[in-house]
Amino acid sequence: MNTQLKILKQIALQAGEIVKRGYSAQKEIQHKGIVDLVTQYDLKTEQFIIVQLQIHFSDYTLIGEELFAAFLGVPIIHHREVLGVLVVQQQQRRRFDESEESFLVTKI
Fold first, then answer.
1. CB distance 106 to 86 below 8 Å
2. Cβ of 42: how many Cβ atoms within 10 Å?
3. In angstroms, rounded to a whole number, what is the distance separating the alpha carbons of residues 18 and 24?
4. Does a structural domain hold residue 65?
5. Of the candidates 92, 99, 97, which has an alpha carbon nearest to the alpha carbon of residue 33?
6. Exposure winner among 4, 39, 44, 70, fewest CB in 10 A?
7. Which element (helix H / strand E) includes 74?
8. Is the dihedral of CA 8, 50, 28, 89 positive or negative?
9. What residues in the chain have per-residue pLDDT under 50?
10. For 25-48, what is each residue's pLDDT tens digit?
11. CA–CA separation, 77 vs 81, rounded Å?
């Protein structure tokens, strides 16, 4: 296993420990979006991952998802094969409408 993969595996295992500690603990649940919930353990896990990735992979810019309240994702499909997902996020709580979704679908 190459060095970068070992580092990523270790970060994932350590982040998993944070999640496990919070599994049966009392949680402070917040609504970050219209239907999305976030707990202090979600925030701690994300912060841990971002810090560790910045330490080990400083050439990359990293942002988490927990500070975003609105999310829209559309699949990137080419010849019936899903190649990935185009994601748009926004910090303000809102609902993306059908025209915005259609716009993204036509761009890919």
1. no
2. 21
3. 12
4. no
5. 92
6. 4
7. strand 70-78
8. negative
9. none
10. 888 877 776 667 788 888 899 899
11. 5
Q: Summarize the chain as % helix, strand, coil (round to 5).
A: 45, 20, 35
Q: Examine the domain organization and report whether 9 and 51 are in the same domain.
A: yes
| C-beta neighbour count of 76 within 10 angstroms | 14
Torsion from C-alpha of 49, 65, 79, 97, nearest 10 degrees: 180
- What pLDDT, on a 0 to 100 scale, did the predictor assign at position 57? 93
7 and 52 co-located in one domain: yes
Domain shared by 7 and 50, yes or no: yes
- Mark whether 10 and 39 lie in a shared domain: yes
| Residue 44: domain span | 3-56
In whole angstroms, give the CA distance from residue 47 to residue 66: 9
